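Q: How do we represent a protein-ligand complex in a form that can be generated token by token?
A: Start from the inputs.
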Amino acid sequence: MEASSDRSQPVSQPPLYDLIILGASGFTGKYVIREALKFLNVPSSPLKSLALAGRNPTKLAQTLKWASHPDHPPPIPILTAETADPASLHHLCSQSKLILNCVGPFRLHGEPVVAACAETGCDYLDICGEPEFMERMEVKYHEKAMDTGSLVISACGFDSVPAELGWMFNSKQWVGPAAPNQIEAYLSLESEKRIVGNFGTYESAVLGVANAEQLVELRRSRPKRARPAIPGPFPPKGPIIDHQKEIGLWAVKLPSADSVVVRRTLATLTENPRGLPGLNESLEQIKKREAFWSTVKPAHFGVKLSSKTLLGIFRFIAVGMFIGLLGSNAIGRWLLLKFPSFFSLGWFRKKGPSEDEVGECFIQDVVCWTRLQ
Ligand SMILES: NC(=O)c1ccc[n+]([C@@H]2O[C@H](COP(=O)([O-])OP(=O)(O)OC[C@H]3O[C@@H](n4cnc5c(N)ncnc54)[C@H](OP(=O)(O)O)[C@@H]3O)[C@@H](O)[C@H]2O)c1
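Then emit the structure tokens for the protein with NAP bound:
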């Protein structure tokens, strides 16, 4: 969703905060606070004022203490907001230029936050990895966001950003007449300790599988988007499991939100080859935008989950099969969500990874390509 009209501020006062982090007490939220503090009031940073928001002020205060350690917690306001209470969200949005939403699963909690931002003109970012939520929000709130000048950007979490930047960087390296045909990202997680994910991500994945049909229906109900003109034939399907000797990884295709994010950008770029115009762009900004997007080339894009060992790949497949088979019925879902550690073979647990486990985990996103003959 892109802001293109004049921002009609419903409140006469300028917003109090540059940024409010919503859901700041969660597993991801606490790391977002820690990063935000590094930029708060640093001379070169535009982040001059910050507030934290969520439904439990005590927990938020404890999280701020954790994120500030070993320093004393800075005097950052803590605001109460609950996604089931639209008035609290409106109040939040009227106080900030930007809301960074870390409350998930987004299909359960995200829509009221997008709605409040679109209605008030506040900008919105999230860490969502749920294609159906992103596409539904665009359908429902694009017009409103255009009217109020709210910029709504989803999928700003870890894996979507490197995937999209990797595709753009890779595609810009090609100098005519050579052009890319297929770009593949190999996502691998390595650790000296156990690799453990938080329950929030697992729950979002399970609910995504459970509601896969809704995404299909949503797409069917929408006009077809432009298809990019990718030179060369459609790439062959290839094996289910592949071994890339050059990067030392075994890999299996991952039906991930990252591929969807890149495909949506490609469709938007096909419809707007010079990029989407921003709000009140200067001549220099227009030139820069057009110069940048004209060098990004379309390609078939996919993501593969990778491991140094073939056994690691079989574990991914087993977890995928559990979620795929059990996620589509109510009893199966109950089992998956009740026993996350069992059904994810230890990769996800209710209380999430320890700080040590997070510190040791190394996530690698390698982008490979196939040259067009
Ligand atoms: N794209 C990525 O790279 C990436 C990475 C990590 C996570 N994620 C996504 O981010 C989401 C959150 O994951 P997580 O692991 O951080 O989950 P989490 O630890 O369960 O945190 C959820 C946060 O939302 C808050 N919350 C829940 N319901 C709320 C409500 N009704 N009103 C206000 N706040 C509410 C919780 O507050 P309390 O503390 O009061 O319970 C908590 O602060 C998931 O959808 C996950 O898939 C994406």
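Residues 19-153 form a domain with the Rossmann fold fold (CATH 3.40.50.720). Residues 2-9 have pLDDT under 50 and may be disordered.
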